Amino acid sequence: MTRIAFIGLGNMGSGMAANQAKAGRHVTAFDLSDAAMVRAEAAGCHTSRTAGDAVSEAEVVITMLPAGHHVRKVYSEEVLPQAPKTALLIDCSTIDVDSARWVAGEARGAGFRFADAPVSGGVVAADAGTLAFMVGCDEGDFPAVEEALCPMARAVIRAGDHGAGQSAKICNNMLLAISMIGACEAFGLAERLGLDPERFFEIASKSSGQCWSLTSYCPWPGVGPKSPADNGYAGGFATALMLKDLKLAQEAAAKSGAVTPLGAQAEALYQLFDRLGHGGKDFSAVMQLLRGDLASLG
Ligand code: NAD
Question: Looking at the whole model, is its pTM more than 0.85?
Fold first, then answer.
């Protein structure tokens, strides 16, 4: 039975660890939150007193932590000193590319195999075991990474070497934010021009404006397949998390010299929306900011 150590049992990690246990793997889980540890035990995981204890006999270590500084700390203070050198280390958190590369360098310097493997799909996919993983690792390590992630995944794709998983994630989410704002602006203009939203959806989804934000995740309530817009913009992918990813994208753009004016505009718009108190709403709720109807968000 594969021995997995799982560190970080929050909104995403709890369902991911549970799916590893469901697949018959021996999961030793750790989180700073007692409530998260109780949930993990109920889902069939074993728990440990520290992250270091959790990894001490692991064949695979998976981390799902909030941000780069958490990942740097957990790896340098707990994982690298205490895991067996044979363990495969996989960080699934969304973090900055520099931190991902730094942790990869430390891990490889200490003799470990390491992969950055951030995810797309959110809490629903984490619970269902249908996440998409974007992986940065040595080519030779990829089959083992794929095998380790399998119980949590719909797709596992190698983006390239260390840091490439995080790079793919922030590029994808910058594109998603820009296309969502585009869809919202189009619906806002269609409304002002007196178009029926349902008819506009039907036309745009069969025309060149078609995109995932429009046809699979429509920001206009009551139109298209069911989406967070039909549920008061609750659930889904929170504005605060999208803002985090847009900030990472802008940092990476500044460092690499990429020109991303629409990414910068998207960051500014989501920053404003967050400051107005809507960080917990799904990112498609920016529809109501652009329509001038924030009151409808409560
Ligand atoms: P979360 O805040 O719910 O969970 C993070 C967990 O890490 C918390 O339970 C916290 O107690 C734990 N933690 C922090 N420091 C720790 C430490 N030193 N040792 C052990 N545990 C520690 O966050 P989340 O929503 O689960 O997101 C996790 C990561 O996944 C983030 O990087 C996020 O950007 C990314 N992500 C989230 C979503 C989403 O929809 N929630 C989607 C894709 C990617």
Answer: yes
